[in-house]
Amino acid sequence: MIKLEDMSIEEFLSKCKKLIEKNEYSLVSRKEDEKDPYKTLIQLGWLVEDLIQFLLDELVPGDYFRGPSDERDKNYPPGIIYEFKKKINEDNYYIKLKLKIINPRRVLLFFHLDL
To answer: Which of 3, 33, 61, 70 stands 20 to 30 A from 82 (CA)?
Structure first.
C-alpha cells in the first residue's frame, strides 16, 4: 500500500477526486474576505456543485503548483496538501486540496482568486 506522503501528483489527485465524487469533502472558508471560497463562487456566478464538477473535469496534474506538504496549523486535522493554480475566465485561481490522514478520510478544499 502506498503511503500518502509517497503518492505522485496523479495518485493524489485521483484519490481526492474519488472522495469528492462520493461527497466526502468540505469546502473550507477562511476569515479573510479575499480568500472566502463562497464569495469567490458568487463572483464567478457558480454554485458549489459547479466548482465540484469543474474540479472533477478540469483539474489535472499539469495544474500542480507545489506539494506535498504537511498541515502546519494545529487548528486543522493532519493531512497531506497539494496546491494547484488554474485559469478560469482569464483569472488565475488557487486550489488547495488536503487529504486528511485520520478517519473519516475527507478532502478539504480551499479555493479563491490567486492573490
So the answer is: 33
Pairwise CA distance, residues 51 & 48, whole Å: 5
What gap in Å lies between CA 33 and CA 52, rounded to an integer?
A: 21
Task: List pLDDT tens digits, range 55-111.
Answer: 999 999 999 999 998 888 888 788 889 999 999 999 999 999 999 877 777 888 899
Q: How many Cβ atoms from other residues are within 10 Å of residue 4's Cβ? A: 16
Is residue 5 within 8 Å of 68, Cβ to Cβ? Answer: yes
Tell me the CATH number of domain 8-113, given options 3.40.50.10740, 1.10.645.10, 3.30.2310.40, 3.40.50.11290: 3.30.2310.40
C-alpha cell at 108: 478539504
Q: Within its chain, how far is the Cα of 80 from the centroid?
A: 11
Cβ atoms of residues 47 and 41 within 8 Å: yes
Q: Which residues make Cβ contacts (< 8 Å) with residue 47, sequence separation at least 6?
A: 41
